[in-house]
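User: Structure with magnesium ion, tokens only please.
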Amino acid sequence: MSYQLLAIARQFADSASHITPLGNGLINDTFLVKSASQPFVLQRINTQVFPNPEQIMTNLVSLSQHIAQKNSADVRLQLPQILSTVTDDSLYQDEQGGAWRALSFIADSESLEAVRTLDDVRQTGQALGHFHRLLSDLEPDSLHDTLPGFHITPGYLQQYRQALAETSVAQDAYCAEFIDRFQHRADELEAAKEQGLLSLRVIHGDPKLNNFLFDINSLQVISLIDLDTVKPGLVHYDVGDCVRSCCHNSDSGVFDLERCRALLTGYLNEAAAFFTDHDYQYLYPAIRLIPFELGLRFYTDYLQGNRYFKVTEPEQNLRRAAEQFRLCESILAHEPAINRLITELRPGE
Ligand code: GN1
Ligand code: MG
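Assistant:
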């Protein structure tokens, strides 16, 4: 542990003593800090990606206030609390300009790197639907857009074309060919938004499996973390991202329909309360689009020399991209089955 890290942790708690890396995020640096009272989470926000970290903190306050005014019996998710610095600020700026913040650690909880049971997946879907429902009466425009362009697939396609024109990295035949084949679908969700078929709501932005915390005793989801990208968007980005992460069989590399059934069953238990006909209609296009989008983001970053996603070796983003494209191919092969599933799960069907 470097002395500097301990000194930063002590900006939030005088008694901070032991610091270990936490999780495996690809953007921010995250640590678990022991102190005389509760352990807490210390994070350095990547200001290349989030140039306005104070907006992240303001959004987090708005979110917590919105949920706190609900009847507590109706709220089944806890959010991490902001811990202020000893000078009562929500962020600490280090000498290199790094922005640090501290959050409470949800006691007796764990995050999963792999699905254990179908019930884990059902609960993940249900927790995402619950989060969307709790925020469905929060005006999206009351939140800052902490990451403009996030999940706007046509924008990522433009960045890819520009990277292609500028890069000296050799193209990967599989990825390049897959992008060419899929790209005509890139604006499906954005076009639906522009036509008024889908509306802006408050989204999480990054609801992958390891951002849901499970109670270690009850095995229930009790928290949803990584709230930096909570902002106005389409809930479809979230559903697509959650399915991409939870319904990807990492051994075979293919899509798992039974997990998708569990996830959507849980999700729609909550989301049926606010879902419209068009919301149902665009579920499959979202499930198909988000793995493509993430693959495109990884591949573009690879072509640009790995500036955005952390890597441990230069071809890691290329492999991550190919993995997402293979998942997307498998989702395309399951199209009729996924559409049947959505029809079957729709209330009143
Ligand atoms: C990034 O840093 P992490 O792992 O929480 C990324 C997500 C990707 C994810 C893929 C702000 O999230 O969009 O789905 O990597 N977050 C941002 O692992 O770009
Ligand atoms: Mg994240």
